[in-house]
Amino acid sequence: RQTRHSVRLIGEFFEDNKSKMYVMTLGFRPMFSAKLIFAVEDNICGVMKLQSTTGSITHYELQVRNSSLQIILYRRCWNHFSKVADYSRELYYPQCQHLVRLGI
């Protein structure tokens, strides 16, 4: 059985590449690197490549600012994501939209 853990993370951009960052714990233990590999105008959505510090594990994330807005731009991100990712898993929950309305 898998157990979930909650960990606070911080990111630090690469000095020579502002589209890439190291993500680490608050104790500065490196976890993975994240690189923006695709984005649409106004950064409504984008595709991130997440790679473990050893480089042995790679994941892709489709990140959307607000999935109820600008569906045409979102579709462009989805098309790019589907080209690079081997599989997908939805991490959106209905309460997310409620949080957007509250401004959280």
Automatic annotation (TrEMBL):
This is Putative lipocalin. It comes from Rhipicephalus microplus (Cattle tick).
